[in-house]
Amino acid sequence: GDKAEVTEEEDMHKAFVRNFGPRVEVKMIMLDNHRRANDVWQQASLNPNDFDRLAREHSVDPTSRAMNGAIPPIARYSGEPKIEQAAFSLKPGEISGIIQKGHSGYFILKCVGYTEQIVQNIEEVREQLHTDLVEEKVQEGVAALFENLKKTSTVDNFWNHTRTGNIRQVSGQVQPGFNGVRP
After folding, report:
1. Cβ proximity of 91 and 114 under 8 Å
2. DSSP character for 76?
3. Pairing outcome for strands 74-75 and 105-114
4. At what angle do helices 13-20 and 126-152 cross, to 10 degrees?
């Protein structure tokens, strides 16, 4: 926790916009292959009023599919830059192009509208933002430390005579049948 540093300009500003700024209300169709995404996009582009039906029939995301494509509003700096950029470039009623995420994720968005900014002045929430950011950075640090420990640790299981992890022979020769654990 002592090493968690919060920068005023970047961290605080981004957190303020992410947590309290305007958001885009969209509906989404998620697909798992490009050809199907292209077919659905063409149908949605020709008739945007069919977007709800297309989401119900084609989306591979069960939650949004059951809700006619409705998802929580998208905020800036929420972790999906491609989707954020596409969403914030839309006007109400517009359909995005096909947004590819990873190797097999394809998204089509329809803008429903924009939310109002919740808090106008960062000073109203500065203390809470700072506390939340420190906690976020501590959690990130803990996760990185744990990953490093997993990579550099060796686990000796005396019950089944196995060893996992970063095993290196430092001297001598390995005897045939030796599994790395001494009885």
Report:
1. no
2. T
3. unpaired
4. 110
DSSP assigned state of 70: B
The reply to whether the predicted model has a pTM over 0.85 is: no
DSSP symbol at 90:
P
Q: Write the pLDDT tens digit of every residue in 31-90.
A: 999 999 999 999 999 999 999 999 999 999 999 999 999 999 999 998 899 999 999 999
Largest Cα–Cα separation, the chain: 74
Tell whether the model's pLDDT for residue 178 goes beyond 70.
no
Of 132, 134, 42, nearest in space to 95 by CA = 42
Rounded CA-CA distance 157/163 in Å is 6
Between CA 76 and CA 83 the distance in angstroms is: 10
Q: Which two tokens stand for residue 98?
A: 């096909």
- Please choose, from the candidates 147, 159, 153, 65, the residue with its C-alpha nearest in 3D space to the C-alpha of residue 108: 65
Other Cβ atoms closer than 10 A to 46? 9
pLDDT tens, residue by residue, 109-159: 999 999 998 888 888 888 888 888 888 888 888 888 888 887 888 788 888
> In the Cβ-directed half-sphere of 84, how many Cα atoms lie within 13 Å?
11
Check if the beta carbon of residue 130 is closer than 8 Å to that of residue 12. Answer: yes
Locate tokens 């929420």: which residue?
78
